[in-house]
Design a protein that fits this description.
Blueprint lengths: L14 E2 H4 L7 H7 L3 H7 L1 E5 L6 E3 L6 E4 H6 L2 H19 L15 H16 L4 H8 L6 H10 L10
Parallel strand pairs: 2-4
Antiparallel strand pairs: 1-2, 3-4
Helix pairs in contact: 2-5, 5-6
Amino acid sequence: MLGVTIIRNVKVKLYKFVDYFKGFENVEAVRKLFGEDVEKVLSQVKVEFFSSRFGYMGVNPDDGHLMVSTYYLKNGAEKEIYLDIIHELCHIKQYMEGKELFDDRFSYVERPTEIEAYRLAVLEARRIGMNDDEIYSYLKTEWINEDDLKRLADMLNVTPKNNSN
């Protein structure tokens, strides 16, 4: 009808997580997350890099692989990338356990899988020396309004001294 052929069932190129993100098997938060199988699990995690100025990283709900924006990877703050990886590894574990990552019965900041992943990231943020103002700033995203941000911070026991972050 249009005189063209569009192949729509294309494969996504996946890479080994451990080839691009090294040493995470030694991070205590990740070790606690995956237990004694940490090295085996991380060696099986796949990552897709996508070229976009928008977005950060997330877990593909179809097969549980990590998706990472190359722009964010190149230009984001190192601590935030580090914490986001830990956050997303928690989602990968949740996916492996059969949990619904995008349960629409909950708002984003009330979704149990998000709270669990943010708790892990906040604990790690504190371990690496970030204060509550820095953590509060880390929790800010375009898809969370100020009221939801405050609710999320309260649930995570993050109390910034300067609420104008």
